[in-house]
Amino acid sequence: MITRHVLALTSSLALLALPVVAMAQAHDASMANHQPHYYNAVDYDIDAGSVTYADDIAPLLQRSCQNCHRPGGGAPMSLLSYDEVKPWAPVIMYRTAIRDRMGAMPPFFIEKNIGIDGFKNDYSLSDLELAMIQAWVRNGAPRGNPDNEPPMLKFDDDIGWKVGEPDLVLRSKDVTRPAIGPDWWGDIGLVPTGLTEDRYVKSIEVREINDIPADRGTNTVGGRYMWHHMTYASGVLSEDGKEIVGNRIGWPIHEVGRNADVFPEKAGRLLQANSALHLNAAHLHSNGHDSTGHLEFGIQFFPVGYEPEYSRRGPRTGNGVDIDVLPNKANQEFHNYVVLQEHTKIIAFEPHLHAPGVRMCMEAIWGHNQFTLNCAGYDHNWVKQYVYEDDKAPLLPKGTILHTIGYLDTTAANPNVADTRNWAGGGRRSVSNMFIDLGYSVQLTEEQFQAEMAIRRANMKDRNDYDISCPLCWAPVVEGQSLAVGND
Ligand code: HEC
Fold first, then answer.
1. How many whole angstroms separate alpha carbon 30 and alpha carbon 38?
2. Does the Cβ of 102 fall within 6 Å of ligand 1?
3. Residue among 64, 68, 70 whose CB has most ligand 1 atoms within 8 A, to mutate
4. The pTM is what?
5. Residue of minimum CA distance from atom 17 in ligand 1
6. Are residues 329 and 474 in the same domain?
7. Is there a single domain that holds both residue 81 and residue 130?
8. Is residue 157 in a domain?
9. pLDDT band for position 218 (cuts 50, 70, 90)
10. Residue 10: inside a domain
11. What's the CATH number where 375 sits?
12. Residue 325: helix, strand or coil by DSSP?
């Protein structure tokens, strides 16, 4: 009884204290605040003594870790079997507990205690799963009954196409890098598409084919590739085929480890007749041995006659000019405000900072509503794009102010900062800075916007259900529109 009273008291105190604590945390993005989160098994109804590798942990590792932590997967060690996992148990506990900050495993840094919960391919761990890992490690990481272990996953290491056979494969010219040399930036030329009619692209996947031996001196991911990244655009070729004339269409940047880009059903991207890709900004690096390689662009099309309903155009958020990063200082903030000129659906959020970056948030301000869409930790060693599930993508009315906030830490606590003594401005190198959301959005007509909102409303359970990604879902009904949920 007494215990219960004490518990009740503590929890009501905790409730009272919570908003203040939460605010303090929201404004302290410094590395010093990047503490691991440790949980009590009892709070999650976990019987700590019964958590085993075979029953509980192996399935989590299969889902969230093994795609990288296996031979040839890019991560430093394999986590396929109990014998491989056991020695790493304490480090696994620590790295997973970092949760959504630089250094966290798996590398998926969306903060779950604020904003929209609903991303595609979310392989992060829930609080319950973290509590489970911690209970297991504290209990000596027991194996349990090996018969209960899930069958080993099979991985296909054939360097194939991850999103299926392309309809068209375009190949860059071969490039070479000496064993030792400075990084190289530049234009590697045009690749004609050979298309005789306009086609809309459903997906594009870029892969690097090189002659770097898989078993030689390649214990980092970068060591397996020549390209750091490739920025490119497409456009119609001039009559002599030597240059692009007229409008250029930008494509998602290719970066080491980047997934294929699959465009939304309603927003295919145009590749014109008689066009070419212009591979105008390659960044290449040397790898300790002379190497030759090229890029292949695997393109899948929507059927002939397909027309996109939505146009891909969204605000440019961020600041590329007035960047003023102070030396040796935690909790530096960058702010950017953009007024949406059209109704907008945000498809993906991709925080992009440089080495000092530790966090980015995106919030929407509409009328007297101001709410956080999402916050994500940032680690400049990883390129992360977070794609919203279709029914969770922010649906923002025109006039909304999109506010992006970047958090930087140039103290020694941030391991990505090479030298804490230097002031830095904006620029392309990692020692200079950027502050952009590289994600993308589509712009909606009034009709499309209303239709999308009708779908959201139909998903809402009752009047108390609030959809943070749809600020107008509970707006007063406009004549001719109806709220599709039950009335009160
Ligand atoms: C997308 C690929 C990827 C996924 C998914 C991933 N890891 Fe990693 N992991 C890496 C890479 C690369 C490193 C080395 C770089 C670093 O430490 O950040 C690493 C490092 C680690 C380390 C530190 C190793 C050391 O030397 O100290 C641990 C522990 C770890 N991962 C555990 C996990 C666990 C557990 C999961 C799943 C819950 C996971 N990782 C998911 C790629 C991944």
1. 19
2. no
3. 68
4. 0.86
5. 103
6. yes
7. yes
8. no
9. low
10. no
11. 2.60.120.230
12. strand
